[in-house]
Amino acid sequence: DSPEEIQSETTEALRSAMSILVQKAPDEADAYREFVLGVAQSVAAAAGDVAAAETGAIEAIRAALEAPAKT
Predict the structure, then answer these.
(1) Rounded to 10 degrees, what is the CA torsion of 48, 62, 57, 47?
(2) For residue 36, which of 6, 66, 68, 8 has the smallest C-alpha distance?
(3) DSSP one-letter code for 67
(4) Would the CA dihedral through 70, 19, 68, 65 be positive or negative?
(5) What angle do CA 34, 40, 5 make, to 5 degrees?
(6) The pLDDT value given to residue 52
(7) The pTM is what?
(8) Could you report the average pLDDT of every consecutive run of 10 residues in the chain (71 residues)?
(9) Residue 70: which H helix or E strand, with range?
(10) What is d(CA 58, CA 56) in angstroms, rounded to the nearest whole number?
C-alpha cells in the first residue's frame, strides 16, 4: 500500500468510528476525538521538530474526526 492509500483508509476508518460513536455513545465522542488527536500530536512531536508532513497528517485526522462517514 502506498502512503496515500494508507492515509485514505485510515481517515475513512476514523470517520466510520466517529459516526458509530456518535450514534451509539454520543457522550463519548468528544473524549475519543481528543484522545486520537492527542496521540497523533504526541507521535508527531516524538521526533522533535514537527514538520509540514506531520502537521498535514494531524489536520487530515482532525478533519476525519469532524466529518460524517461516507455511506
Answers:
(1) 10
(2) 66
(3) S
(4) negative
(5) 120
(6) 79
(7) 0.82
(8) 90 94 94 95 81 86 81 48
(9) none
(10) 5
